[in-house]
Amino acid sequence: MKFPPLTCYRSSLASLSRITATAMLALPLILSSLGCSQPSEESQVSKQDTLEAGLAALRVFDFEQSYETFQQLSASVQKEDEMWPLVTYSHAISAWLKTPTTAEGVAEAVRLLDLLSQEKPKSTYTASALLDLGRITEISNFRGDTPDVVTARRYYERVRTEFPNSEMAIRATLFLAQTYAQTLNPADIHKAIDLLDACLQDPANAAWVGLIAQYVGVLYEQYLDQPQKAIDPYMQAAQAGLARHADTDSVLWHIGVLAQRAGRDQLAAQAYAQIIRDYPRTVYRSVSQERLEQIQKEASKKEIDRR
C-alpha cells in the first residue's frame, strides 16, 4: 500500500474509527503507561487511535496538532513496531511544515527522515523521506536558509536508483528535471527533457503520461522557444489525459493553433475535430468549426490544383 506525502495521505489503519482532536488531549496519561515490552491490547488500540488522530490532523493541514500528536506517539513506538515508519515519517513532515517554519523544525525533520532512511531502507516511507529531503534541501525553508540544488539532486537520484519502477521514482524524476529546467540554461533544459522522455518510454508509467508529456511541451514552447517541437508532446498529453481534465479543450485549441502555424494542417484538423466532438459547450467550439472548415476547403483546393 502506498503512502505518498500529504496530498494522498492515507493510513493502513484507515478501517479504525478516528478520534477527535479534543478527545486526543486525554491520551497522554494512557500513553505514559506503554513502556512495557509486551503492550496490552488496550494500549495498542490507544496507539492506533492516536495515529489516526495525527493523520486526521495532517489531512486538514493542521501541522501544529499533528506535530504534538506524533511527538507523543514517537516516544511510545519502538523501531520494531509495524507503525514506526509511518509515525516517524509523519512526525518529520509535521516538524517541517508547522508554522512558523524554523531552523529547529527543519533540522528535526531532516534528522527524523535520515533516521527513517537508515533504519528502514526498503520502506515505502523511506522513498517519500528521500524525496522530501531533496525538497527540503532544494528550497529555502526560512529566512537565511541556503538552498543546495546539487545535494537535492543526489536525493532525487537515490529515489530513482533505490526505488525503481515506483511512483516515488517518477516524482523524483519530475523534481530532478525541474532542478535543471529552472536554470534556464538550454543545455540543462534539454537534460530535463531527456529525463522526462525516458519516463514516457516506460510503459509502466502510463498513468503519468498526461502530466509528463504536457511538461515536455511546456519546456519546448516556453523555455526553449521551440513551439513546433511542443506540438506532439501536447497532443500526446491530451490523448493520454491531462492532469487537469478541465483544461483539455483549451489545450487542444492551443495544439490546433500551433499545428497550423507549423504547417501541420492534418494534426490541427484532428485537434479541432476533437474539440467539436468531445466539448460541444466549450467557447472554442465555434472557432474550431470555422478553422476546420477552412482547412478542409484549402485541402480540397490543393487536391483540385494537383489534378
TrEMBL record:
InterPro entries: TPR-like_helical_dom_sf, TPR_rpt. This is Tetratricopeptide repeat protein. It comes from Thalassobacterium maritimum.
